[in-house]
Amino acid sequence: CTGGLYCPAQRKQALLHFAGRRAMDIEGLGDKLVDQLVDAAIVKTPVDIYRLGILALANLERMGDKSAQNLLAAIDKSRNTTLGRFIFALGIRNVGEATARDLARHFGSLDALSEADEARLQQVPDVGPIVARCIVEFFAEAHNREIIEQLRAAGVRWEEGEPAVMPAGALVGKVFVLTGTLPGMSRDEAKARIEAQGGKVVGSVSKKTDYVVAGAEAGSKLVKAQELGVDIVDEQGLLTLLAQST
Questions:
Q1: Phi and psi at residue 37, in whole multiples of 5°?
Q2: Can you say whether residue 180 is alpha, beta or left, with left for phi > 0 and alpha for psi between -120 and 50 degrees?
Q3: Which of 159, 147, 153 has the alpha carbon at shortest distance from 18?
Q4: What are the start-end ranges of the H helices in the chain?
Q5: pTM of the model
Q6: Does 206 share its domain with 238?
Q7: Residue 110: what pLDDT?
Q8: Residue ranges of the chain with pLDDT lower than 50?
Q9: What residues make up the domain containing 107?
């Protein structure tokens, strides 16, 4: 299902995800209430949550005036959110909470994210081809774009910023694996220096790996790199690559 925010088959699950604590954080909008709202055809999409009033809620089972007022207050409070939370709330397939925050930091605005192609998306840490394709497909759906605009019109807002500046240099888009102990720098330092120049450090060797940086007592990752014909460099080789990218 690529229907995302509009998918009837997954309506209840999508609404619960949208209202969840790590997403829009609408306190009081739980399983039983969502069941009632959907079954009564009061809520079909997340936009309908922001159209709820006392009269609609008063007819629901076990919903007194105080509970209704508390829910409406929680809904109103959720209108002010963060871009990362909103992206997560959208329920894009394979986009978890951490990835949503990374996308928010990288692109700075929802418009920039929605216009990004798969290659641009894969510049974000931990976003591979599958996740990038899911994001592109989500924003390609007219229904999803329409609901996002309706949510904005309903007063849902978040702060936006400048997109992250992509580092320039020879390491942009290159995939590294670190193995063994390097003589002059820690693994964390090596990773930070690679990422600062646009490279990506992953935990396992594959055909997509560009370089394996091997130190003392390198293990199975070195063997795998040799089997796949991946370029293997030592610390000095890494320093040479870093120097070329500055």
A1: -65, -40
A2: left
A3: 147
A4: 11-19, 31-39, 46-49, 54-58, 65-78, 83-89, 97-107, 110-115, 118-121, 129-140, 142-153, 187-196, 220-228, 235-244
A5: 0.69
A6: yes
A7: 98
A8: none
A9: 83-158
